[in-house]
Design a protein that fits this description.
The chain is an alpha+beta fold. The chain is built from seven helices and nine strands, in the order αββαααββαααβββββ. A five-stranded antiparallel beta sheet has the order 3-4-7-6-5. A two-stranded antiparallel ribbon has the order 1-2. Strands 8-9 form a two-stranded antiparallel ribbon.
Length: 200
Amino acid sequence: GCGLAGLRGIPYRRGRVVRPLLDCTRLQVEEYCRDRGIAWREDSTNASTRYARNALRLEVLPRLEKLNPAFLDSAARLGRIARREEEFLAGESLRALAECRAGEGLALAGLQGLHPALRLSVLALWVAEQGGEAETEALERLEALVMQGRGRMQWDGALRFLLCGGRITRERAEEPPFSLVLRPGENRLPWGDVIFFGQE
């Protein structure tokens, strides 16, 4: 469930942090240091497979390399491709988010017209703006409501989303409850649910 952002791996540069050795293997770095008499320090936990990252590095990756000696090169190439595509998607998502804005919410028609990958990315950006953690499963449920064009969704804590009137908006907890005059028969709530009211 990591998506492109997870596949791209650690960036070469993030703010003031620069990682010039990302394309070098551990063996290459150790060999370089040995040849030049440079001492290095080892983290005492590096050899322990109790940690998932070490078990992956010490047990899983060597097996994958036995199956495919070019595995590390292929994984690095996949990371570069994912990085390019994720950067493109991020830019397109910001543009689409701006186009879909409707007041404090987003226009459902605009969202519905987007490619599913772009739609999920735009929703993730918007949910993050509202203070929510953009998790894939929850985003997919929200996307289903967007495609229905109505509904209500509890996100986390006090964060709720309301889809009605052609928009998705954040439903603020402090807002007073709505009122509805009930008529005999079917009564549609603002977010799309229906209640029935009848006379005996």
